[in-house]
């Protein structure tokens, strides 16, 4: 809503600047987003009288004018506007004047003729082109003949005004009109309110002799009223009205249309003027449109209507789409003499469906959608009729021809002084409360400390006690509410064990050198499940949003990996090729084709790594990321979570992954994730370098019960370490060997660690050598050589039996 | 005899002083103090001395031995020190060469902001509540006083999956769920962070996916003035002790009264600059007293219980705090962007 500061003065005394007013309105609950000065830096523009206007001797398109500026002698101005003529009053920027954009007017010579100033168009004075009346759109502006020569032109053009742009929340549709804003401002400033006085002289004729009104859709159109105004002369509306429309962002058209728009802005009541003689009947019938019905609207577009649209008809054909736009055939034109003025209440939902389907949003439709004050329909109609009588020479026929109920009962709401003060934390006196309600112009009764308020129909947002608490609070002033501290019992807060563990995981991941990424949950159907690691994941349905903005953001993901690969790609395209990132986010699984219950949501921890891992350039060290770098990160994580002894990695073929360099991660016997190198084919498809990824079901990991830490006594006896190197089949996993080593080593074997792997020339084809360092220890005594030898030989024998391993010589 | 000893001593000490390496000293030691050395030789002639002279000469001889030994030792240690110093000198490095880089990642700036806010409220006795990102219409709208057809639903065009299931447009459904779990008994004190989704075209200031963090307190006698206290504490901790706050009446369907909180501009201190759009104030969050309908729907007696709720956007806070100009940076994850938040 654009509010003219000067216009507002009609209703409320304003002894403060526009900026001060804006500040007060904002503090009281309606945000003033912008205070715009219409002046835009203009100085030195006065009313001039064109005394003489002749063709420029050397230029076809220029005229040389003698203009009286109220000074001793007239000045000569060269003007290029086609519509300049002798006898006009025009805005003149004098020599030394400044126009918007800091454009200074200087003495000039144009094709040999002196020019001492500039006759201005409205756009040159800073008015937006689309708001300039058509007749002045390609020339200078012509002012009323009674404008005083030499006086400040800006006040004639209302360019000394300020416009306050209100950012209205949906509950405050009452301020979508000047009167509503006036009520608000009068309450805030504690000032008198002056409502417009409407007096209509009616002719002897009766409106009901001209038209009948029937409504066949009472629910959509609870009230319809029609007035008849005869003997209209179509002409421009008065300059002050045009100025106010321009300030509110509406282009002046002619007196009749301008008046309907003016009253719309003033009362918030949309009105429509039909050319009575072009209506085609003496009947108004409001009904739903028939499917496929067509009409040509004011903008000369042919509109196809449907059964959920409400139309005004002449009994046969639609003449307007209710609350949205009038029809071309019944449009007010220059020769119009009799006007049928429509003042109706249409339900917002009906107007909305038409305005949405037809793609037409107007000042009128948006007000109907947000809700208008039904009890104001009458006042607005009479206001418009009286203005048409005054400014268009109209004669108003008696009465309003109507259908439906015009008035609705006003609501009631109650609140107690105690409730106000306990909810706000204030100590507002009863007298102050009464005073505030009076300022808001709410009628009320006081019973003890109980206030029973009759809510005016302009404020349908007020229904319960809390609404009244807010009204009292905001007029009282939120800055006067004290600052207190919660009295709630002092129970300690804290993170849940899961939340604390999740943070620990983040810190660990960051500590390993990975950066945390946050990516979008919506992706393409293909990417949404491009990576899986368990049967269960493959048996789910994809979850698509019903109206995606694009295919790229249409489906909820069940894996984080594709979005992380997108991040690698983004960076790769910017020559950032050493990247390690992780993400902790939700993934979604639907266990049914069409969701009847919420999908399953899990939290995954995933990562993607590419390029170099450790770099120390001047020492010549460059270590590439490989499978084992990533595995090491995960092993450290499992240790951090106390799960490492229950975790195993098993080679597996997974979609999109390198078949020989991918493993599933198992917790006990359950697959909880995977790790591996991206398949070279996939890598090429994504335009990446060699990349590694992992994905883990974090909920499963953090949900696993972990034994509490128990202190192990430090060794009191020496341990004995012996190495063992065996030759085995090349494809035998080292993990299998390690398992058997531990089984065979018995109680005495405390640790085994692989320290050498050899596959090469000196090895028999298809064989490899693995060397382990084994540590034997007994907490109760010193071990003897014989015992250790026995255990060690037992291990070797088991390895021979199970894997055909032979001792490496 | 004593004179001879005296001469030997002086001769030995001179040689020691002139010695230049350990081997030379070893030779001196052997030649003067050894079994066949001159001192031993001299002492062999002691038998010829009178019983009175013997102890005197003996003591003198020992004195000379000690003097030579100690001179030798100090010269040895002197030479050893020189050797060590020489060695260390050769080992010296250029300390200005860069160190071995330690890999260290960091949290995403949005996580950093959320955790900072969480931690602040944890110290005030709040817990962190979380809920699903795919929600029912009931929890996302209806339980929050937004029945079907409510005009404010227009304000948040949503990603629906079915008629009844959608991507949550706010974290408020977590409030509704948490209150429900309390079965009408207070106190409830939570903050709930998380991702939310709206049908917005992505541009510099809009994102179809973004974060929210909301807070909720429900108890007997919770007042708007208490909300002011909590928000003031928050603003000062988050944006500096000198911050002032301002509550402006506003509108949210799930609170009544509703407020918006501005903080005095941390850039210009209130004089007006481009960050605060020359108003001196920066809009930070929306808040209000929980609407009685919301309390009742969640099973609380709105005559007995009152509460407040507040909600804010971590993106906006991060953008203000770090001067980030485009919301899309948060979701593009350019490494040059992520790396800037090491100390966040
Ligand atoms: Zn500032």
Automatic annotation (TrEMBL), chain A:
Residues 715-808 form the FDX-ACB domain. Coiled coil: none annotated. Transmembrane segments: none annotated. GO terms for biological process: phenylalanyl-tRNA aminoacylation. CDD domains: PheRS_beta_core, tRNA_bind_bactPheRS. GO terms for cellular component: phenylalanine-tRNA ligase complex. Mg(2+) binds at residues 461, 467, 470-471. It comes from the Bacteria. It is found in: Cytoplasm. Tetramer of two alpha and two beta subunits. This is Phenylalanine--tRNA ligase beta subunit. It comes from Fictibacillus solisalsi.
From TrEMBL, chain B:
It is found in: Cytoplasm. Residues 111-320 form the Aminoacyl-transfer RNA synthetases class-II family profile domain. Mg(2+) binds at residue 256. It comes from the Bacteria. Binds 2 magnesium ions per tetramer. GO terms for cellular component: cytoplasm. Keywords: Aminoacyl-tRNA synthetase, ATP-binding, Cytoplasm, Ligase, Magnesium, Metal-binding, Nucleotide-binding, Protein biosynthesis. It catalyses: tRNA(Phe) + L-phenylalanine + ATP = L-phenylalanyl-tRNA(Phe) + AMP + diphosphate + H(+). Pfam families: Phe_tRNA-synt_N, tRNA-synt_2d. One of its GO terms (biological process) is phenylalanyl-tRNA aminoacylation. Its cofactor is Mg(2+). Belongs to the class-II aminoacyl-tRNA synthetase family. Phe-tRNA synthetase alpha subunit type 1 subfamily. Tetramer of two alpha and two beta subunits. This is Phenylalanine--tRNA ligase alpha subunit.
């Amino acid at each position: 809503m654009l509010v003219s500061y000067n216009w507002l003065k009609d209703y409320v005394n304003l002894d403060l600047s526009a900026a001060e007013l804006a500040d007060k309105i904002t503090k009281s609950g309606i945000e003033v987003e912008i205070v715009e000065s219409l002046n835009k830096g203009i100085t030195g523009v006065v009313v001039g009288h064109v005394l003489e206007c002749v063709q420029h001797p050397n230029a076809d398109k220029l005229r040389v004018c003698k203009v009286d500026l109220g000074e001793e002698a007239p000045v000569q101005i060269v003007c290029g506007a086609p519509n300049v003529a002798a006898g006009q009053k025009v805005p003149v920027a004098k020599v030394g004047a400044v126009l918007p954009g800091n454009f200074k007017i200087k003495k000039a010579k144009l094709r040999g003729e002196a020019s001492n100033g500039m006759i201005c168009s409205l756009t040159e004075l800073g008015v937006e082109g689309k708001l300039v009346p058509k007749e002045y759109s390609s020339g200078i502006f012509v002012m009323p003949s009674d404008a005083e020569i030499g006086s400040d032109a800006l006040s004639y053009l209302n360019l000394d005004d300020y416009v306050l742009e209100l950012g209205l929340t949906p509950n405050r549709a009452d301020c979508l009109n000047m009167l509503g804003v006036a009520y608000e401002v009068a309450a805030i400033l504690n000032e008198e309110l002056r409502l417009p006085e409407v007096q209509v002289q009616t002719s002897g004729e009766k409106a009901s002799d001209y038209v009948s009104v029937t409504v066949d859709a009472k629910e959509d159109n609870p009230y319809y009223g029609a007035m008849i105004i005869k003997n209209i002369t179509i002409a421009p509306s008065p300059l002050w009205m045009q100025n106010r429309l321009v300030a509110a962002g509406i282009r002046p058209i002619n007196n009749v249309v301008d008046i309907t728009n003016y009253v719309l802005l003033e009362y918030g009541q949309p009105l429509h003027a039909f050319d009575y003689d072009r209506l085609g009947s003496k009947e108004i019938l409001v009904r739903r449109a028939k499917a496929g019905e067509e009409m040509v609207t004011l903008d000369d577009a042919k509109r196809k209507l449907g059964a959920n649209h409400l139309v005004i008809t002449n009994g046969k054909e639609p003449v307007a789409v209710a609350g949205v736009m009038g029809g071309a055939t019944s449009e007010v034109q220059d020769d119009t003499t009799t006007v049928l003025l429509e003042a109706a209440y249409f339900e917002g939902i009906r107007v909305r469906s038409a305005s949405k389907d037809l793609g037409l949003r107007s000042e009128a439709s948006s007000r109907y959608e947000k809700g208008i004050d039904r009890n104001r329909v009458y006042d607005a109609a009479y206001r418009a009729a009286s203005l048409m009588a005054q400014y268009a020479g109209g004669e108003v026929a008696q009465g309003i021809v109507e259908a439906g109920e015009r008035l609705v009962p006003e609501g009631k709401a109650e609140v107690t002084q105690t409730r106000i003060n306990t909810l706000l934390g204030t100590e507002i006196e009863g007298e102050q409360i009464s005073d505030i309600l009076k300022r808001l112009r709410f009628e009320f009764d006081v019973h003890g400390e109980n206030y029973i308020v009759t809510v005016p129909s302009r404020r349908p947002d007020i229904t319960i006690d809390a609404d009244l608490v807010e009204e009292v609070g905001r007029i009282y002033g939120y800055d006067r509410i004290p600052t207190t501290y919660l009295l709630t019992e002092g129970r300690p807060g804290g993170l849940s064990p899961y939340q604390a563990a999740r943070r620990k995981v983040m810190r660990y991941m960051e500590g390993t050198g990975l950066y945390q990424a946050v990516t979008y949950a919506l992706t393409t159907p293909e990417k949404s499940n491009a990576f899986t690691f368990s049967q269960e994941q493959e048996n789910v349905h994809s979850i698509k949003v019903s109206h995606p903005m694009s295919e790229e953001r249409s489906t909820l993901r069940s894996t984080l990996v594709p979005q992380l690969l997108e991040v690698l790609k983004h960076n790769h395209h910017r020559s950032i090729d050493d990247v390690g990132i992780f993400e902790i986010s939700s993934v979604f699984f639907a266990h049914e084709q069409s969701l009847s219950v919420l999908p399953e949501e899990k939290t995954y921890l995933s990562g993607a790594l590419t390029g170099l891992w450790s770099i120390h350039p001047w020492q010549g060290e460059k270590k590439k990321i490989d499978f084992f770098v990533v595995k090491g990160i995960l092993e450290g994580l499992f240790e951090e979570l106390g799960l490492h002894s229950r975790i195993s990695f098993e080679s597996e073929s997974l979609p999109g992954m390198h078949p020989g360099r991918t493993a599933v991660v198992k917790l006990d016997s359950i697959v909880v994730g995977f790790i591996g190198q991206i398949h070279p084919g996939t890598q090429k498809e994504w335009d990446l370098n060699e990349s590694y990824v992992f994905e883990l079901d974090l909920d499963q990991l953090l949900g696993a019960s972990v034994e509490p830490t128990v202190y192990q006594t430090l060794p009191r006896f020496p341990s004995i370490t012996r190495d063992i190197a065996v030759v085995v089949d090349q494809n035998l996993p080292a993990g299998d060997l390690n398992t058997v080593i531990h089984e065979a080593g018995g109680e005495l074997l405390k640790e085994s660690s692989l320290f050498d792997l050899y596959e090469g020339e000196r090895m028999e084809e298809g064989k490899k050598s693995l060397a382990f360092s084994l540590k034997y220890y007994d907490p109760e005594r010193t071990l003897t050589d014989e015992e250790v030898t026995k255990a060690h030989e037992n291990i070797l024998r088991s390895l021979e039996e199970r894997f055909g391993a032979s001792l490496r010589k | 005899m004593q004179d001879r000893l005296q001469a030997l001593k002086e001769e030995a000490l001179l040689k020691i002083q002139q010695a230049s390496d350990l081997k030379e000293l070893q030779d001196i030691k052997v030649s003067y103090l050894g079994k066949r050395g001159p001192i031993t030789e001299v002492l062999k002639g002691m038998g010829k001395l009178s019983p009175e002279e013997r102890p005197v000469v003996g003591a003198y001889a020992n004195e000379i031995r000690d003097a030579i030994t100690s001179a030798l030792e100090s010269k040895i240690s002197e030479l050893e020190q020189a050797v060590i110093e020489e060695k260390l000198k050769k080992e010296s490095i250029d300390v200005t060469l860069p160190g071995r880089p330690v890999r260290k990642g960091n949290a995403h700036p949005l996580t950093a902001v959320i955790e900072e806010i969480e931690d602040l409220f944890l110290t005030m006795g709040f817990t962190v509540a979380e809920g699903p990102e795919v929600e029912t219409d009931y929890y996302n709208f209806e339980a929050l006083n937004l029945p079907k057809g409510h005009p404010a639903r227009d304000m948040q065009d949503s990603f629906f999956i079915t008629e009844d299931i959608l991507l949550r447009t706010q974290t408020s459904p977590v409030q509704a769920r948490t209150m429900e779990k309390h079965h009408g008994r207070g106190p409830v004190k939570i903050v709930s962070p998380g991702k939310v989704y709206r049908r917005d075209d992505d541009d510099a200031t809009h994102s179809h996916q973004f974060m929210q963090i909301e807070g909720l307190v429900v108890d007997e006698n919770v007042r708007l003035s208490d909300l002011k206290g909590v928000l003031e504490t928050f603003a000062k901790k988050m944006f500096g002790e000198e911050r002032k706050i301002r509550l402006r009446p506003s509108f949210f369907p799930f609170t009544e009264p509703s407020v918006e909180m501005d903080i005095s501009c941390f850039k210009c201190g209130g004089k007006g600059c481009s960050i605060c759009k020359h108003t001196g104030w920066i809009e930070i969050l929306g808040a209000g007293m929980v609407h009685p309908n919301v309390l009742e729907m969640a099973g609380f007696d709105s005559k007995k219980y009152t509460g407040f709720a507040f909600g804010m956007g971590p993106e906006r806070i991060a953008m203000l705090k770090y001067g980030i100009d485009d919301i899309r940076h948060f979701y593009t994850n350019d490494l040059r962007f992520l790396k800037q938040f090491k100390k966040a």
